[in-house]
Every structure is written in C-alpha cells, then in structure tokens.
DNA sequence: ACGCTGTGGGAACGCGCTTTCCAGCAGCTA
DNA sequence: TAGCTGCTGGAAAGCGCGTTCCCACAGCGT
C-alpha cells in the first residue's frame, strides 16, 4: 500500500519523501518541490512557510538520486588522482575540493594507484554517476593505446554532458592545467650547472609516465646544451615514493659513486635519497653530493638539509582546474600554463 | 518523440539508455537488464552475447542515479575528514578508500576544515545521496550542543539504512575505531620523565577538539602522578599545522625559556616547533630541548633530528573503519581500540 | 497423447522528484 | 460589469531502471 495521499501524520517508517512533507503541509508535491528547491516559480509565503516547517519537522532531505534522475544532472564532481596518500595529489585535491565546496558540490575522489586501467574505469563510473564534471590529475601515461582508450572514455563522458579538466601534460582536447615540467627540469639542470656540477646522477620515476619523460627531457636537454651528458646507467628509476628514492639512491651509488649531484624527479624520492646518503652511504648533503627535487611538497622545507627543489603551486593547480571545470567556455579547450619556480635551499652547493 | 521501441540504429544523441541497447540487441529491456546486472534469472547464452555486444558497441554505462532509485540503494560510501591536505587524514582516507575500492565502491570525500557545522551538513548531504555508509574521521568536538546535533544527523542517516563508522574518540552508538590518545599522551610523558625532564612545555591543538583533550589529559595525568606539573601558561595552543607549531613555539619560548622538553600534540606542530627552535630561537634539538610529537606521519622520520613521536597506524585505522562499515553486525556497535606506539628517534634525549 | 513442470521473454508498475500544462482566481481596464 | 491579463496551486507525465507478474513454449512423466 503506497503511503501517498494519506494526510495521516506519517507512522510508517522508511525514508521521508517529498510526498510526506507535502501531505503534512497540506499541499501538493509540486508545491513542496518548488519551495524546497528554489524553483523559478514563486510560492505564496504562507504555504511556503508551512512546507518548510514540515520539512524541518520530518528531517526531510531530498533523495539525490531521484533528483538527479528527474533533472538529469547532479551536483557531484569527480576527481581522479594517483593516490591521495601522496602530498602532491593531496595538495591538488585539497585545492580542487575547496573550490567545489564553494560551489556546493560534493566530490567523488578516486585513487588509481597509477594503474591506467583503473583510470579508464573510473572515468566510466563517473559517467555512470552522471557527474557534473571530472578533473583528472596526475601524469598521463605514454602508452598510446591506453591513451586512445582514455581519450575515448573522456569523449563519451563529455558527450553525456560532463565537463572535463586535466592537470597533466598531455594533449587532449579538454581544458588543461599544464605544469611546465620540461622547463622545470631545465631549471634544475641550470642550477646544477651553475654550481659547477658535471658528474650528475638522476633518480627517475616510474616508466611510462609522461611527467617523468618531460622532467627528464628538460633536464637532459639543458645539460646537453652545456655539453654535459648523463650516462644511461646513471639514471635509476624509482617509484616516486620516499622508500623508492632510498633504494634507488643505493643503486645509483653502487653504479656511480663519483656523482657530485643528484636530480630526483620528485620530492619524496629526493628525501629518500638524502636519507640513504646519510644512513647507509655515509655521504653528507650537500658537502659530498648535492640533491635537488621537484614539486616542493610541504615537508621539503623541514628535512635536513632543507631540500632545494623546483616548486609547483600544487594547491593552486587543483583550484584552477576546478574553476575551469565550473566556468565552462564555448571557445574550445583552454590551457593554463603553470610556471615552475626554482627554490634554492640547503641541499645543493657548488662543487668544491 | 521518445526513442523507445524503434529498432532503428540509434541516431538521436543524448546518453545511451538501457532501452537503446535492448533495441539494438533485439530484446526487451528486462532481458537486457538481466544480463547486464547478473540477475538471478538466467538468460540464454546467445541472447546474452548479443546484449553484451550491443552494450559494448554503444559504450553503454548504466545510469547510476536511476539504478539507485530503482534499487533504493547505491554503491557509494561517504568519508568525512577535517582536511585531506593533512598527512594524518590523507593516510586514513587512503586506507579507507583502498578497502572501498576493493568492494567496488566509489567514495565521496568531504573536507570539513574543522568546522562542526560543515560536518553536520555533510552528513545530511550524504544522507541525501543515499550513501551506503559513511566513515567520519577526525577528532570530535567537545561542545555538547554540536555533538547532540551531529548524533541526531547520524541517527537519521542510520535510520535511512546508512551504515556509520567513526574514527574518533567519542561515545556515539556506532561502530568505532578508537585510537588510544589518552594512553598515547601518557606514553609521551613517561618517556620524558624517564629522560629526566621536569620543566616541560606543551604545544596543544585547537580548543574544543576531543583528541586534543585526551592527549593532553593523558600526558598531564602521567606527569602529575610523578609529581610534575605543567603550568597553564606553558601550554600554548597551536592549530595543528606546521606553521602553527612554529608560531606557538616562539610564544612558548617567550613565556618559558627554561623548558627542557616540549610535547607537541601532533607531528606537524612538532616539526614546526623544531624549525622555530633552529631558525629563530637558536636552540638545538635535542641537546638544548627535546621535542616529541604525536601520530608518526610519514615525514616524521625525515626531519632532522628525526622526530620522536607516538605512532598511530593511520592507514590501518582507515582500513579497519571501512571494514566495520562494510561488514555490519547486528550485535550493536563495535569498538576497535588502536594502540599507540612510542617511536623513539633523535629529537629527544636525557636532560644533562 | 495429454497434462504438468520448468524456463525464457515481455509488459507494466513503481522508485522520488521535476516540470510542463491547465484550471481557477484576483485585479485590472474599458 | 464584462473581458483580460497575470499569478498561484494542482494534476500528470515523464526521467531510466529494476522487478515483479504473466504468458509462451519445450521437455517430461504416466
């Protein structure tokens, strides 16, 4: 027996529906809906008051899925990152979510753990949820086949009316916040060169990430332009974590104990490297070897020696991406370039 | 003109619906639904194949809101934290989200920025979204009026069929992961006492947070039991961030330059304090003053001196909370106590 | 050979809400 | 006073999907 129409004071249990508040306010569902959701239509103040009181008394909250179905749009945005448990993404996510909250939007956060399959799958699921839009943060992958499938999913998402914003270096036809990774890599190289370093090692990131490629290319190109080369086996690939940097540094030291400087492709890796240098290798930073990182995560300033790094305004990047998403333009995809800034601290010094 | 029934190859745009795939597969919606959702009813393999192919070809994804409406349940869980941009919550969230992902659930993450109003509001919104459950992490507030309203909202949420799990020290009738903050505070005190410290300062957290109260009470009680008191003005309240710790340390030093040890109620505060000590106050840690933190966030081991702290297994806490949520019990609320572990590193030493 | 059981497919209803569309009414002008 | 216009409230038709209920049909037993 449906509960509708009965103006009874609602004894049956289950979620309170709009019908219930309409009944107890003595109005139609349509009217109740209008007052509760800021429709364009105006409702007489007396009725409106009754409805609001009924809603409050019954602790009514609208059924968001039903609302989404009827309106065929939601108030949810998606956000896809590699892992929140990484200060880089935590900062980007925080920026984006703050803007979303300002617009009264709820955020669905998904971690891909750097699995491109998962990334594609999450786009599909966000599409299923009819998310208003999604911001995809984190490095792209270099595998063209994966990229094609991702692009396809994103297009499907967009075709369903979803908005898309990217925080990554990748040419897809969507609004993009583009960190200047290549230029940043070059800046790191220029600093090391200026300090007189020539025998340089690199702690790279996971293979197949475009961020890694760009930072690396920028760094090596700048070195090359100065006539300095980094031998291939002086590039050790780490997994972009602190512990990964630790292990990779050990490996690098084993292969090339003569390096006077090390470029780590992100800060956690650099921090791990410094720890390895101090705890196991027994070299001091920066006297024996200079270390430079990338990103400037919050803890970079508190390690000892304080980490010289290439700063990216992470929170701002997340914020800008979300703004792009929420203020769509009809003039095609926009790109916001984010400049990298060299932050010189104590982990680098000139070669003696 | 609704697109239904037409077995035409679908030219009109808009999202692909179940009807579309049914049409192009030449079956009824019911049949299509059955194969796509693993219903109890079995469909002939040939038809099933046709349906699956059609779905794939049309890039169909189900309309989650519609599905939620029809089934009156969703595959979404909510997670409320103070701020993802805080390694404490990032770790908890990561643990929880990993478990959620294993169960094929999407996570809605909300930041309260320590605003109790926001917290209450998010519970309501999660209820509106008919989230399967929600885990509420982060310290409770001590204001009884706020707490009552929160409890009420949570009850409403539960009444709608939502499951609730808490990661906080607070007695609400829901499954709870309870970090032993009081005991942890005592452990910190015991260490400092054993090292011979008697003139101790405290960098506390924001007022009105139950976590703060418990850590503080545990610490002071243990001190008191040993006949040691901390004067009230040697307790400076910081905001639980690195910069907050920095400023608070300056204040503490101005008031009581004679302290031989400082207890910071969380790690970022301790890290900020160490920075202030080194950069502005000019005292060295641990020779001039010992510093101990709380939580053991990832960067605690990489600051110099490495931070002595009271460790909480953050990721595990998030994980356990989500498991409680996903494996409900009918025997009333459960509580999982999480032991705090003292991790002695280099930021503490015995008083000379 | 007939009736019965079991299996697959189709039609219709309902989930809770938004949104036309329509009726009624008050205020106004001619 | 008659005829309009301008509003407000209500009725009803979907939004896309899940899920009965029911029918058609094939296989089986006696």
Structural notes for this entry:
The first copy, chain A, is an alpha/beta fold. Chain A has helices at residues 18-25, 29-36, 45-57, 64-71, 87-102, 116-128, 144-159, 181-194, 210-225, 242-255, 267-281, 314-326; strands spanning 76-81, 106-111, 133-137, 163-167, 175-179, 200-204, 235-237, 261-264, 290-292, 309-311, 335-338, 341-343. In chain A, the strands form three sheets. Chain A has a six-stranded parallel beta sheet, with helices on both faces. In chain A, strand 3, helix 7 (144-159) and strand 4 form a beta-alpha-beta unit. Chain A is elongated and about 85 Å long. The termini of chain A are far apart. The model of chain A is unreliable at 1-11 (pLDDT under 50). At the A-B interface, helix 4, helix 5, strand 2, helix 6 and helix 7 of A face helix 4, helix 5, strand 2, helix 6 and helix 11 of B. Strand 2 (106-111) of chain A pairs antiparallel with strand 2 (106-111) of chain B. The first copy, chain A, binds a DNA duplex (30 and 30 nucleotides) through residues 2, 15, 17-19, 27-31, 33-34, 37, 39, 41-44, 47, 62-63, 65-72.
Describe this structure in a few short sentences:
The first copy, chain A, has 352 residues and is α/β, with parallel strands linked by helices.
Notable traits:
homodimer, 352 residues, alpha/beta, elongated, DNA-binding
